[in-house]
Specification:
alpha+beta; 4 helices; about 20% strand; globular
């Protein structure tokens, strides 16, 4: 089931969003995860990052070189959906590099992810976790998400890779 979703592409100006995992740059993702502006995750050893990529539907954001200008495609953003491809989607690790923030690329990435999620045939829930109030407002506006009420508890346990104090 997953394979049919691993070659979707969206184009805008010199930018591309793609679910093709062969385009993803593990060094670029780990470099981004090593910065303080990504507070919810840290870099992983490359073999473990490859497992993460293989086990999720990943959305890479790329800046294409300008025609005739040379250069190479650069990964400037990322997001992934952990999903069963039928009823559930969990968004995580969504980022756009700081030099590209404020240009609408984050909204576009989320829009591409939303477009895909809305095609799930029996979606029960799409969710994400954030403790950042600015991010809460962003996802309310751009994914029509809302805080899950107090009628049930969201539960979990901390693993050795957890970096957030909760």
């Amino acid at each position: 089931m997953a394979e049919k979703y691993r070659n979707l592409h969206w184009e805008r100006d010199q930018f591309t969003v793609s679910t093709d995992p062969t385009l993803l740059s593990i060094p670029s993702i780990n470099a981004a995860l090593s910065n303080d502006y990504i507070y919810w995750a840290k870099p992983l050893p490359e073999p473990d990052m490859q497992v993460l990529i293989d086990s999720s539907l990943c959305f890479g954001v790329y800046e294409q070189p300008t025609p005739g200008g040379g250069g190479e495609r650069q990964q400037i953003g990322f997001g992934r959906v952990i999903t069963d491809y039928t009823t559930f989607a969990y968004l995580t690790d969504v980022y756009i590099l700081p030099d590209y923030q404020g240009t609408g690329l984050g909204k576009w990435l989320i829009g591409c992810m939303r477009e895909w999620i809305r095609k799930l045939p029996h979606l029960r829930m799409a969710m994400l976790f954030t403790g950042n109030e600015k991010a809460v407002k962003f996802y309310e506006r751009n994914l029509q998400m809302k805080a899950i009420g107090t009628s049930f508890n969201t539960m979990g346990w901390k693993g050795p890779g957890d970096v957030i104090d909760w």
